Amino acid sequence: MIEVNSLKRKLQTDITNKLNYYQQAIASINTRLSIMKMDEKQHIENVAMIKNAIKEKQNYYTKLRRDLTDDLRKLQLNDSLIFDLISDIKFKYRAHRTVNCSKYLGSYQQVTFPSPHACIYYNNAELIANVPTKYQQQVTTIFDKHVPNLWDTMLQLNGYFASNYNKQVFDSYLQKDLVIATNNLAIKRTLNAEKKTL
After folding, report:
1. Which residue, 2, 51, 111, 187, could crosslink 120 as a Cys pair with Cβ 3.0–4.6 Å?
2. Is the predicted pLDDT of residue 113 greater than 80, yes or no?
3. What whole-number distance in Å separates Cα of residue 83 and Cα of residue 74?
């Protein structure tokens, strides 16, 4: 029985490895086919469109930071403290299978917006500790207003690399789309050059 189970596990591992290899090969062929279906002009337009989307999103991110700065300035905090507060915002991500996230992850406070399949936190306590006591509640309210938009925009631009998972957490984000589109354009140009040579 032990030998049969051992053989079964070995065969299953072999089948799984072969399946993964074939799936990767199929994905590679499908990618190449989709590249070939588009002409070079369409690839160039796609790259330009993504670059434009990145520029717009970067401008929006800059506006969000400026709005946060303006709201903090209204409290008459000094510029150096405001700069440090905004620059030191850090996020933590935790995958979850339940509907509800806990309010805190260590000293990090939950970002107050719903995020499917994930709990997002930021270092509120660490930031607030640097603020004079009489302004702390107001600064927390300002962060609660702006931090969700900062997270969302950052996510759309660059995704999020979770060091505790040692991986890029989200599959789709603009910088990745640009890399893929640029690579596809290069492949298309190579294919066109090979075609002319033939």
Report:
1. 111
2. no
3. 14
**pLDDT tens for residues 120-150?**
899 999 999 999 999 999 999 999 999 999 9
Cα(60)–Cα(54) distance, integer angstroms: 10
Residue among 178, 186, 196 nearest 40 (CA): 186
CA atoms within 13 A on the CB side of 164: 6
Give the mean pLDDT of 170-181: 91
Mean pLDDT value across residues 173-195: 88
CB 118 within 8 A of CB 140: no
How far from chain centre, in Å, is Cα 123?
A: 18
Q: Is 120 helix (H, G, I), strand (E, B) or coil?
A: strand
Q: Is the pLDDT of residue 104 over 70?
A: yes
How far is residue 139 CA from its own chain's centroid?
26
Tokens of 65: 């930071």
pLDDT at 98 over 70: no
What φ, ψ does residue 110 adopt, rounded to 5°?
A: -65, 140
Task: Work out the widest C-alpha separation in the chain, in whole angstroms.
Answer: 76
Q: How is residue 165 written in tokens?
A: 């998972």
Per-residue pLDDT band for 115 (boundaries 50, 70, 90) equals low
Indicate the SS3 state at residue 119.
Answer: strand
38's tokens: 């588009």
Beta carbons within 10 angstroms of residue 46's beta carbon: 18
Cα-Cα end-to-end distance for the chain: 60
